[in-house]
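Session log. Operator J.P. requested a structure for one protein chain; no other inputs attached. Running the standard single-chain path with token output.
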Amino acid sequence: MSTPEEQLQRYRRSIDNVDAVLIHTLAERFKLTQSVGELKAEHGMPPSDPGREQRQIARLRRLAEDAELDPEFAEKFITFVIAEVIHHHERIAGSE
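Structure written below.
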């Protein structure tokens, strides 16, 4: 039988592993959106696509519900990510 301290350490190691996955996944996502931003800039497309953004928010809210995650939290998170992506796309477009 493990002590509460040992159990806490196991939970924390698992949390640390999940955090690492999140960071690597976000890095991969931003690499992809960087390519999208370059493509948009090259072809004179706007940095933002409000229709796509709204569909993504709705989609991630549904995924959050299915995963038993607060959909409000999921929306705040993806809205922050989308805002960063748009900012990057604007910077890319400005440098073209």
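Operator note: Helices lie at 4-42, 50-66, 71-95.
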